[in-house]
Design goal:
Elements lengths: L4 E8 L2 E9 L11 H10 L5 H10 L7 H46 L4 H18 L1 H24 L6 H31 L8 H43 L1
Antiparallel strand pairs: 1-2
Helix pairs in contact: 3-5, 3-7, 4-7, 5-6, 6-7
Length: about 250
C-alpha cells in the first residue's frame, strides 16, 4: 500500500540488523552501515562534534554510525583537540624562544660590542648569571618549547595524514629546532660556562682581549645559527596551525 511504512531488515555477516523505516515509494538502495563505511566517513572528513557529524550524514544520505564507531569518532575528536592545543603551545613557546634569541642577536650583542674588553666580558657574564640563577621563566619557556615540540610531533603521527604535506612540515620544524638546541648545547652553553669560570679582575689586557675575541666570535656565530633554526620552526608551526584550524 502506498505510504505504508514497512520495517526493513538487512542481513549482514553477523545476522539480522534493523536499519530504518521507509516508504515503498522510495527507491530501493542499500542502507546498511558497515564498519568499512563508518571508517570511510571518519577517515575522509573532520568534524568538531557529534552534531556536525549527524548533520553531514543527513545532508549526504549517510546511514548512522554504529555505536562502536561512534565511540571511535569521539576518541578521534578528542585527539584532534589535544593535538591542536599542543600545536598552539609549541607555536607560542618556540616563537617566544626565537624572539629572545633574535633580541640577543640584533640588540644585546650589538650593544655590548661597543664596550671595552673587560666591560664586554663583565656585562655578558652578568646577563648569563641572571639567566642561570634567577630566571625560571626563561627555562620554563626554553625547556617547555622543546617538550611541546616533541609532544606535538608525536601526536602528529597519530593525527595527521601521512600522505599529506602537514606531517612533513611538522617533522622538518622539529628537526630544525633540535639542530638549534644542539648548537646551544655544543657551543653557547660551554662558552657561557667558560666565561663564568674566568676571574676578570685578575686578567691583564692581553688575556681579556684574547678571551673576548674567542668568546664573541664563536658565541655570535652559534647564536645566529640557532636563531635561524628557531625562527624556521616557529614559522612552520604557525603555518601548520593555520592549516589545521581551517580543516578541523
Amino acid at each position: 500500500m502506498f505510504g505504508f511504512w514497512n520495517f526493513l531488515v538487512v542481513r549482514d555477516r553477523q545476522g539480522q540488523l534493523p536499519i530504518s523505516h521507509r516508504s515503498h515509494s522510495q527507491p530501493h538502495h542499500h542502507l546498511a552501515t558497515t564498519k568499512k563505511q563508518d571508517k570511510m566517513v571518519l577517515g575522509k572528513h573532520k568534524f568538531h562534534n557529534t552534531n556536525n557529524l549527524i548533520s553531514y550524514q543527513k545532508s549526504s544520505n549517510q546511514a548512522p554510525l554504529s555505536n562502536q564507531n561512534l565511540n571511535t569518532f569521539h576518541a578521534m575528536s578528542n585527539l584532534s583537540k589535544v593535538f591542536e592545543i599542543s600545536l598552539l603551545v609549541a607555536t607560542y613557546t618556540t616563537a617566544t624562544v626565537f624572539g629572545m634569541m633574535l633580541i640577543f642577536a640584533i640588540v644585546v650583542m650589538l650593544g655590548i660590542a661597543n664596550l671595552s674588553d673587560a666591560n664586554f666580558l663583565g656585562a655578558f657574564k652578568a646577563i648569563d648569571t641572571v639567566i642561570q640563577t634567577s630566571q625560571p621563566v626563561f627555562f620554563l619557556f626554553w625547556v617547555g618549547s622543546v617538550l611541546a615540540q616533541l609532544v606535538t610531533m608525536g601526536l602528529g603521527f597519530a593525527e595527521l595524514d601521512k600522505k599529506g604535506f602537514k606531517l612533513p612540515l611538522l617533522v622538518i620544524g622539529t628537526l630544525l629546532y633540535i639542530l638549534g638546541q644542539f648548537a646551544t648545547a655544543r657551543y653557547n652553553i660551554p662558552l657561557n660556562n667558560r666565561l663564568q669560570d674566568l676571574d676578570l679582575d685578575d686578567m691583564d689586557s692581553f688575556s681579556l682581549n684574547t678571551e673576548r675575541v674567542y668568546f664573541e666570535a664563536n658565541w655570535n656565530r652559534a647564536n645566529v645559527f640557532r636563531t635561524w633554526m628557531f625562527g624556521f620552526t616557529a614559522a612552520l608551526n604557525a603555518v601548520l596551525l593555520l592549516l589545521t584550524n581551517s580543516t578541523l
